[in-house]
Design goal:
Helix 12 packs across helix 13, helix 17 runs parallel beside helix 19 and helix 19 packs parallel to helix 20. The chain contains 28 helices and 26 strands. Helices cover about 45% and strands about 15% of the residues.
């Protein structure tokens, strides 16, 4: 129950009540959990600030309630957060989908649209809904994060078709896990979809074209159903085409939705109209530029709102010429995303990589999009007429097949081409002089190709569907090599004379993409590489809750746990997992990886939360080395110490870097000061002695064991190399060990003289007094009573930056007296 309560607590500003059964029912339907055990569980929840109200349900008795009340009477109730996911658009199918400041471009799959897909329309008109459902599934598999559903066809009963299809989606978990976008120009069809759509969906769309009254009525209904809404840039004057009108209409709609309907700004999506270019009409030449400019202004002036658009409209002039249309879409998205476009209705899996577009075609497309060339339309039309038939054959030649096998494998991965990957992999494997082991083919050209894929994805030049294609090519290549690696392992066992049925693996590793994150390409690559290096890999997939990760690790007796994440919120979930591992007393090493992670964040934020090894793994190529060292019985302690020292240095460098940051003004610092409601938190414990306590002539010998010798050796610029870093291992270092021993012995002699000659005297003073902060002052009282004699007043110093601004260097914690 704890993970669910914690998850709820992070997701709501409301109070939380917890009233469990007295355990699970026994064979006879009774409950065996004692009052003391139930009370202990709830007390733990209360002590950790997870609940506001506790009680008992099935199987509990008055004795249970008495024990619970007694256990929690000293606990403070949970203090709800002031806000949760404030900057996020929250959507859901069967799984939550949060669109936040660091979310990549969101692909809304367009193929479940009777107006946009002939195949889908034909299936729906023939009432072949089961086959139509496969199109939705393919869209999700190809990377669609939201599904657009449109049933606008004159010969179709829209509301009933929408209801039937949405109900069928609900029965398919693989499809229903993503949110839906209910798309129609007929609001009756939209309402039909809202009535049967599980989770939180998007309504596409409403507008001001029929006036404010109709707009507000529909907006109120959408809000009542709990959906997000797409607002088209239309008003009573018609469709907005220039930048100023687009922003004007969207701004008007924004204020109506917030002020009159009460919409959350994060639930508002604007579609500033992607209109067709390349029509041959001069007045259409600015349409793409106007959309991009309007997007930038909307994101700047309408806080919280998102921007979307129907991408296929852009290239409608070139329908039937798919290569040109795809090139236009890839080029347009590359620039629109930079200026704030958050999502778009696209053909998931059919977006080209920006860098892959034929250079001549790319230049023509960008000249058209940016209206750089008065003849851009004519030139692109000429290109279209020249390359319309078999265009893909012209652009996608097999010239790359003439390169080396390494080049071919990398190219196939980057382009997502499966056709030749097996024969190329075999060619590389057969070159035993270059690749003595099958594993070397994976670590060489295959991994090099995947690194390029990661770079392109991070730069926004490649989209998630293309990354998925690359991963499938990688899987096919590795799948071909696995039998050869298994044969190699069997031969090695036979050569060693081993006949025992021992565990053939080096160790067991649990890998998971943490809760809230659906990205797993990097994790999958790590899993492949580790598996190929004789590790048993248990892959828990994506969106994996903390409790499942830890449960699987314990049940499978994992030697290492690896966490992966691509988006920034994943970092907080990783911190939470580390804290839970510490709370449960686990000692399993924890690996941290993923595009958003870093060694600095791991050292500063994650490692201090867990006493066992926490190691940041830069990429798959490092994972094998790290895992091998962590499982090496003879060297793992030294390796952990090495990592600990390195991370301590990183933390210190990080904290030192903060000293040079500009500070807040004094007024700003006071506003951001800690303000506590002392009625809502537990009263601090009172020390046994109030006042001062003096230690006279404290035994110096008792202090020697607490000397940290690392700064001593650092001053002398003596630093051992792994595994001989730190005291006392530094003495074993071949380079500095002898000198380190010499200066250490000299220091010991000096300490002995100081002790024997009693040349130094240790004295200590500690003091405890009631205190409170009053403004910038700390009031210290002579006795623990109120009112009390004010013993002293200390002013908190102010530190001024070079620019003349200041801050409170230390903000005291006020204590009630």
């Amino acid at each position: 129950m704890r993970p669910f309560i914690e998850a709820i607590g992070k997701s709501t500003t409301s109070l939380i009540i917890c009233y469990p059964n007295a355990g699970l029912p026994n064979t006879f339907g009774g409950y065996d959990e004692t009052p003391e055990l139930t009370a202990s569980h709830l007390k733990e929840f209360a002590l950790d600030g997870l609940v506001n109200i506790v009680g008992g349900c099935c199987g509990t008795t008055p004795e249970h309630i008495r024990a619970i009340a007694e256990g929690v009477k000293v606990c403070q109730p949970r203090v709800p957060p002031t806000g949760v996911f404030q900057d996020y658009m929250l959507l859901s199918g069967l799984e939550p989908f949060r669109i936040g400041p660091y979310t990549n471009f969101v692909n809304i799959g367009e193929r479940c649209n009777v107006a946009g897909s002939r195949k889908f329309a034909k299936l729906i008109m023939a009432e072949n809904y089961e086959e139509a459902l496969s199109i939705a599934k393919t869209q999700v598999e190809m990377g669609a994060q939201v599904l657009d559903i449109n049933m606008d066809e004159g010969m179709l009963e829209g509301p009933s078709a929408m209801t039937r299809f949405c109900n069928l989606i609900a029965s398919e978990p693989d499809i229903a896990r993503v949110p839906l976008c209910i798309d129609s120009s007929n609001f009756a069809v939209i309402e039909a979809g809202l009535k049967c759509c599980q989770g939180k969906c998007i309504v596409n769309s409403i507008s001001l074209k029929e006036g404010e009254e109709e707009f507000l009525q529909r907006a109120n209904l959408v809000r009542r159903y709990g959906a997000a809404v797409v607002v088209m840039a239309f008003d009573e004057e018609g469709q907005a085409t220039d930048t100023e009108r687009k922003v004007q209409v969207c701004t008007r709609a924004y204020h109506l939705l917030i002020n009159k309907v009460g919409f959350n700004p994060n639930d508002i999506i604007f579609d500033p109209n992607i209109l067709t270019i390349g029509t041959g009409m001069e007045e259409h030449n600015q349409y793409a530029i106007n959309f991009i400019k309007a997007t930038r202004l909307i994101k700047m002036t309408l806080p919280g709102a998102r921007v979307s658009g129907g991408l296929s409209n852009l290239s409608f002039s070139f329908r039937g010429m798919e290569v040109i249309r795809e090139a236009m879409h890839g080029a347009f998205l590359y620039h629109a995303i930079k200026d704030g476009m958050d999502m778009g209705i696209v053909n998931a899996g059919n977006l080209p990589v920006y860098d892959d577009i034929d250079k001549d075609l790319l230049q023509l497309c960008e000249n058209l999009i940016w209206n750089r060339d008065p003849e851009a339309t004519e030139k692109l039309l000429l290109y279209a007429q020249t390359n319309a038939k078999g265009a893909k054959k012209v652009i996608q030649t097999d010239e790359w097949r003439e390169g080396s096998v390494e080049h071919r494998l990398e190219y196939a991965l980057i382009k997502g081409i499966e056709k030749y990957v097996v024969e190329d992999t075999e060619e590389a494997r057969a070159q035993s002089d270059r690749y003595p082991r099958p594993l070397h083919v994976i670590e060489g050209p295959l991994m090099n190709g995947m690194k390029v894929v990661g770079d392109l994805f991070g730069a926004g030049k490649m989209f998630l569907p293309q990354v998925i294609k690359s991963a499938r090519v990688m899987k096919k290549a590795v799948g071909y090599l696995i039998p050869f690696m298994e044969k190699e392992r069997a031969e090695m066992m036979a050569a060693s004379g081993s006949t025992e049925e021992l565990d053939p693996y080096q160790g067991t590793i649990v890998l998971a993409t943490v809760k809230g994150d659906v990205h797993d390409i990097g994790k999958n690559i790590v899993g492949v590489v580790l598996g190929c290096n004789n590790f048993r890999v248990i892959d828990l997939g994506v969106m994996t809750p903390c409790d499942r990760i830890l449960k699987e690790a314990v049940e499978r007796k994992a030697d290492i746990i690896g966490l992966s994440g691509l988006i920034t919120p994943s970092l907080d979930e990783m911190i939470y997992v580390a804290k839970e591992m510490e709370r449960l007393g686990m000692k399993t090493p924890l690996l941290i990886g993923g595009a958003t992670t870093s060694k600095t964040h791991t050292a500063v934020k994650i490692a201090p939360r867990y006493s066992a090894p926490v190691v940041h793994v830069l990429d798959a190529s490092r994972s094998v080395v790290v895992c091998s060292q962590l499982l090496d019985e003879d060297g793992k302690e030294e390796y952990f110490e090495e990592v600990t020292e390195e991370y301590e240095d990183i933390r210190q460098d990080h904290y030192d870097s903060l000293k040079n940051r500009r500070f807040l003004t004094l007024c700003q610092a006071r506003e951001k000061g800690l303000h506590l409601d002392w009625h809502a938190v537990r009263r601090p414990a009172c020390p046994q002695v109030i006042g001062t306590h003096v230690f006279e002539e404290y035994d110096l010998g008792r202090l020697l064991a607490y000397i940290d010798w690392k700064p001593f050796f650092d001053v002398w610029q003596l630093r051992g190399k792994y595994p001989n870093r730190g005291y006392p291992k530094i003495f074993k270092d071949k380079t500095v060990g002898e000198e380190a021993r010499r200066v250490f012995d000299d220091a010991q002699k000096l300490l002995t003289r100081l002790l024997d000659g009693k040349r130094l005297q240790a004295r200590g003073l500690v003091g405890f007094w009631p205190a409170q902060s009053v403004g910038d002052d700390i009031h210290v009282y002579a006795h623990d009573v109120v009112p009390a004699q004010l013993a002293t007043r200390g002013h908190v110093p102010r530190v001024t930056s070079a620019g003349g601004e200041g801050l409170l260097e230390y903000r005291p914690l006020p204590v009630p007296v």
